[in-house]
Specification:
Elements lengths: L2 H19 L18 H17 L7 H26 L3 H27 L4
Helix pairs in contact: 2-3, 3-4
Length: about 120
């Protein structure tokens, strides 16, 4: 093991416990568990994010067009869910107006993508 590799291994070992204890878990907050006393909107965003990522974990077919549409539909559904959360909990009029516009546009795009999927070959 060369000196650089040894230093990297030592730094990684030393940082491991710190990363495990960080609120971001080393992944920028994706999927991180929140505190029991976090705001309802935060809990709802976490849950929506987890559902969206599970739904986006599609079985790829090798058909880039089909795979794109199949992955983007749950992505757009997640955006709608997040927009609805901000409508329940947000107060800023401009943000609320954006959320409403996102819901309208994403619903339109989901319908368009579903129609495209219908006409594409299965593979």
């Amino acid at each position: 093991m060369n000196r650089r590799t040894a230093l990297l291994a030592a730094a990684t070992a030393a940082a491991g416990p710190a990363l495990a204890q960080s609120p971001h878990g080393g992944h920028g907050g994706h999927g991180a568990r929140g505190a029991a006393n976090e705001p309802a909107s935060t809990r709802e965003f976490r849950e929506a994010n987890a559902r969206m990522h599970r739904a986006m974990d599609i079985r790829f077919t090798g058909n880039a067009d089909r795979d794109f549409l199949a992955g983007m539909i749950p992505h757009h559904e997640g955006a709608i869910e997040m927009a609805r959360i901000v409508l329940r909990h947000g107060r800023d009029p401009e943000v609320r107006a954006l959320a409403e516009a996102i819901i309208r546009e994403q619903e339109r795009e989901i319908a368009q993508m579903r129609a495209m999927l219908q006409r594409l070959p299965p593979r």
